[in-house]
Amino acid sequence: MINHWSSENQERAKELLEQYPEKRSAVMPLLYVAALEHGYVSEDAMREVAGLTGLTSAQVQSVASFYTMYKREPVGKYLVSVCTSISCYLRGADAVLEAIEDETGILDGETTPDGKISVEHVECSGACGGAPAVSVNWELVEGLAPDKARDLIKWLRDAEPSVIFGDEMQMLFGGQQSFDWGPKEIEGAIAALPAFDPYGTAGGEK
Ligand code: FES
């Protein structure tokens, strides 16, 4: 059923399935691999994961539709997520979102015609102390002012980084951080998916 997947993704799927006594327990990791293969969690991707886990397509869909990191429509190479929950709202998230919409020429929920950038607003990103918080491909940048948000978008458009590192964005564009996140980041996101090495969505060394 996944014969058309890349050999790397087939191997990942096999390894992930071997890690769980019950195949169905691998549903979430496999959805990441499927999204990496298809670019998003398409209907085909959900059917494939159902075939691998023994779940029904409806059961896989119920998981995929519950978690916002599983995108069921195509998204741009860079998914820019602006937190608009209370802490970020009070610290100017609306102005940050407006600056991003203006700089990209698209509105919240849209993707640029060249497929490079998608913009969305999200609920609390867990970085309230560094509000307003924005993430690109789930890599965080905190304390982002509207003018720096514009610079971030220009950087994505012009430099087109192949790996997104939160540390790098924080250094280039960020402001106040909630706290020191600790060890230097060694892996970033290579797709509009959270960076997890076993799922093939992380890469690079900065
Ligand atoms: S409210 Fe924005 S990170 Fe928590």
Secondary structure layout:
Elements (H helix, E strand, L loop, with lengths): L6 H12 L8 H12 L4 H11 L3 H8 L13 E6 L2 H5 L2 H12 L12 E6 L10 E4 L2 E4 L3 H14 L6 H8 L14 E2 L12 E2 L3
Parallel strand pairs: 1-2
Antiparallel strand pairs: 1-3, 3-4, 5-6
The structure holds FE2/S2 (inorganic) cluster (FES).
Looking across the biggest beta sheet, what order are the strands in? 2-1-3-4
Distance between the termini: 37 Å
Q: How many domain units?
A: 2
If helices are DSSP runs of H or I spanning 4 or more residues, what is the number of helices?
A: 8
- CATH class of the largest domain equals Alpha Beta
How would you characterize the largest beta sheet? Answer: 4 strands, mixed
CATH topology of the largest domain, by name, is Glutaredoxin
Poorly predicted spans: none
- What's the β-strand tally? 6
Bound chemical compounds: FE2/S2 (inorganic) cluster
Radius of gyration: 18 Å
What is the N-to-C order of secondary-structure elements (H for helix, E for strand)? HHHHEHHEEEHHEE
CATH architecture classification of the largest domain: 3-Layer(aba) Sandwich
Beta-strand share of residues: 5-15%
- The chain-level structural class is alpha+beta
Full CATH superfamily name of the largest domain: Glutaredoxin
- Mean of residue pLDDT? 94
